[in-house]
Write a structure and sequence with these properties.
CATH architecture of the largest domain: 2-Layer Sandwich
Shape: flat
CATH topology of the largest domain: Beta-Lactamase
Distance between the termini: 120 Å
Helix content: 25-40%
Number of strands: 27
Oligomer: single chain
CATH superfamily of the largest domain: GAF domain
Length: 744
């Protein structure tokens, strides 16, 4: 470890090599790992940097000349020759494994730069190899990272260049590219198609007649100075300025912008030409059509005008508005009253994308004219300005007046709505119906409202106290005492004492009810008036007007509702609302009857299941057990748990009934042939002894076509099967005896 010992380690005397101590000290203090080997290649000495890098001395058997990473390889076959000649040799980079130097430690790969020198002993004519290792691992990593980044950057630049090229070539606008001085470089197909032919290679913007004669020199210089310039719509015949252009008039909108070099100098000028030729022709046509439309507007009895929301100028007003302005002497105030509210709402429209294409409609009371108007406003294009508003104002004062009058007449609608909501959820249907009848009677001054069920027995009847006493003979009971309700022209409908009546299916009245939504009639104590008129007989009565509404269910007449009035108070609105009420009532009654029938059906089905001699299990739609009848419990001595699932039954799956179970899931009835169930089998069909069963499973499908339930019917056929087997065995035995006797 002493620097002064290096000459003696090499076998040199201090006297001979006193002048080399400085060299050896430099070796020892060098930041790079330096090793000294004997002439045979065995390790002699390493400086401190060497031990920092490799940690220990190489093994005794290690020879530097046999290290393939440095000597004797195809890559470094010149290293040994250079060493023998005393010439330095440099290996720029090698991937070196420390296992070659220090096999005891965990091997580490590192990148090294290797310098090979030789120290010549002139007395003994031998050379000592000196190897200097420089760890360049981090440098290699950085270089690789830079190479990767550079490659990615180049790929990105190439991709962006390709994308830009595609954008230019495939762009529908004509694009021409010039250098910073205006010399032509390139143009896309759209540009050449626009002008009719390619630009000449010697074409230059600076000398172009378009620039000079149209006096766009200042714009050209602005682009050369790095500014973006937009040239508005221009129309010209290019051949008048440059002979290689086609002889036809063109209209362009041009945008010119520069691109800059790395030195921030304008190196290219790009011109984008938007062809406005057809647009200008269309604009001329639109101007003509607009003038035609405006002439039509002049004949409109409604107000029509066009105004600019920024300048507040009226660009057009039709004859109606002009005449109002003249007659009232205040044209500006009339327009302002319309415009202020429209502007406010149209500004909101502009904040929403695409909303400026949707017409704005509002009802507006014009205080100056003292009339109501339905105003329609929308943005239109007017002389290249898209922010102009067209306004229609239609006088709806008469309609508003009528609606207000109608609103007063239709208060009955609120009553019907309130009644309808009471039918959504009810606990006592008779209570709800009686309450509804009371509200209708109070509003319409009904003398009688009666409702009859499907069998035409009275479900609920409401009438005022006077009529009730009259009908009941002075009592407060609800029973009808009328014996003859209709008695003319064969319309025979008779009330009985038990408050029921029969409709003869052959009667014209019944046939008419099947076809019509309602029938109205008048009956009088004194005389019948019309074919559908009839007498109603009770003491002290006056003539009444009545209306019958049929209650239908799926097209079948299932009930009747009767409204009676002292006077002809009914109008079309009342009849329409009473029809709505009747439809709602029909739905409620149908629901009540359906629920009643369903309850009876459920009770009947439950009785059938419980009294069935076969074991019946009810499963849910997923096959899990819900309940079973008494016969099932008697058969199996138990009920399955709720965890049992038919589709997971191991016995059925073991016997290969997977397809049958799949059919059952799909809504088909499944028949499982007789099979034996062992007492040790893991199934809910198992009992305390072996037995034979036959199984039938059928689905219960909901109205929405879902599998609601599964009914499994289990039949124990053990006795029949054993008897059949014994009989078959007996027959086989007899047949065998017969054959043996025949042979004998």
């Amino acid at each position: 470890n002493n620097v002064d010992e290096i000459p003696s380690i090499l076998g040199f005397s201090n006297h001979q090599y006193e002048d080399r101590k400085l060299l050896h000290r430099i070796i020892e203090l060098n930041p790079y790992a330096i090793t000294i080997f004997d002439p045979n290649g065995h390790f002699l000495h390493g400086n401190s940097a060497y031990y920092d890098l490799f940690k220990v001395d190489p093994p005794k058997e290690y020879k530097i000349f046999e290290d393939p990473s440095i000597f004797n390889t195809n890559l470094h076959n010149d290293a040994f020759d250079a060493f023998q000649k005393g010439s330095p040799f440099h290996i720029p980079q090698i991937l070196y494994n420390t296992k070659k130097i220090n096999p005891t430690l965990h091997p580490v790969e590192m990148w090294l730069s290797v310098h090979i020198f030789s120290l010549y002993d002139s007395e003994n004519f031998v050379r000592y190899p000196i190897i200097m290792f420089e760890d360049i691992t981090e440098r290699i990593k950085v270089k690789k990272a830079l190479d990767t980044y550079q490659e990615g950057l180049e790929n990105e630049i190439e991709e962006r260049t390709k994308t830009l090229r595609n954008v230019i070539e495939l762009n529908p606008y004509g694009i021409a590219i010039f250098d910073g001085n205006g010399a032509y470089l390139h143009a896309n197909q759209a540009f050449e198609k626009l002008l009719g032919r390619p630009l000449a290679l010697d074409f230059s913007l600076q000398n172009s007649g378009i620039i000079k004669k149209l006096k766009y020199e200042s714009e050209f210089h602005q682009v050369q100075q790095g500014k973006i310039v937009e040239i508005p719509l221009i129309s010209f015949n290019p051949q008048d300025y440059d002979s290689f252009f086609p002889n036809r008039e063109l209209s362009f909108k041009i945008v010119a912008f520069p691109t800059f070099s790395q030195e921030n100098i304008v190196d290219q000028i790009i011109l984008i030409f938007e062809d406005k030729t057809k647009e200008k022709e269309t604009e001329a046509q639109l101007d003509f059509e607009r003038s035609q439309i405006l002439s039509i507007f002049d004949s409109f009895p409604e107000i029509v005008y066009v105004f600019h929301p920024q300048t507040k100028n009226v660009l057009y007003s039709n004859t109606k508005l002009n005449s109002l302005g003249i007659s009232m002497g205040n044209f500006d105030q009339i327009v302002k009253n319309f415009t202020e509210k429209i502007e406010l709402l149209m500004n909101d429209y502009l904040m929403v994308p695409d909303m400026n294409q949707i017409p704005l409609r509002l009802e507006h009371y014009h205080a100056l004219i003292q009339k109501y108007f339905l105003v329609t406003a929308r943005f239109i294009k007017w002389n290249n300005d898209n922010k102009v508003i067209l306004v229609f104002a239609i006088d709806i004062s008469d309609r508003i007046k009528f609606e207000k009058e109608l609103e007063e007449k239709l208060k009955f609608k609120d009553i019907i709505t309130e009644i309808s909501s009471s039918f959504v959820q009810y606990f006592n249907i008779d209570q709800v119906i009686d309450s509804s009848f009371m509200k209708i009677s109070n509003y319409l001054q009904c003398k009688e409202i009666s409702l009859f069920r499907q069998d035409y027995s009275e479900l609920s009847m409401w009438s005022n106290q006077v009529l009730r006493k009259s009908l009941a003979g002075g009592e407060t009971g609800m029973k009808f005492t009328l014996t003859n309700l209709w008695s003319k022209a064969g319309y025979d409908i008779a009330f009985k004492q038990d408050a029921t009546f029969n409709l003869w299916a052959s009667s014209p009245f019944y046939q008419l009810l099947l076809k019509e939504d309602w029938i109205t009639f008048r009956y009088s104590k004194d005389h019948p008036l019309y074919p559908l008129s009839f007498q109603r007989i009770f003491d002290g009565s006056q003539g009444l007007y009545s209306i019958f509404f049929p209650i239908r269910s799926q097209g079948v007449l299932t009930g009747l509702i009767l409204f009676s009035f002292e006077f002809q108070l009914m109008n079309e609105e009342h009849i329409a609302l009473l029809k709505i009420f009747t439809d709602i009532l029909a739905n409620v009654l149908e629901r009540e009857w359906a629920e009643s029938n369903l309850a009876r059906e459920h009770l009947t089905l439950d009785n059938i299941i419980q009294s069935n001699p076969y074991g019946i299990a009810i499963l849910d739609g997923k096959g899990y057990f819900e309940s079973g009848n008494r016969a099932l419990n008697t058969l199996l001595k138990k009920f399955p748990t709720s965890a049992y699932c038919l589709f997971q039954d191991k016995i059925l799956l073991r016997n290969g009934y997977q397809k049958d179970l799949l059919k059952l899931k799909q809504g088909e009835t499944v028949y499982i042939p007789p099979m034996i169930i062992r007492k040790e089998d893991p199934s809910f069909f198992t009992k305390d002894q072996d037995h034979y069963v036959k199984l039938t499973a059928f689905p219960i499908i909901s109205t929405e076509s879902y599998l609601d339930n599964i009914i499994v019917m289990l039949e124990d056929i053990t006795a029949e099967t054993i008897t059949t087997e014994k009989l078959e065995a007996s027959e086989l035995k007899e047949e065998s005896l017969f054959k043996n006797s025949s042979i004998g």
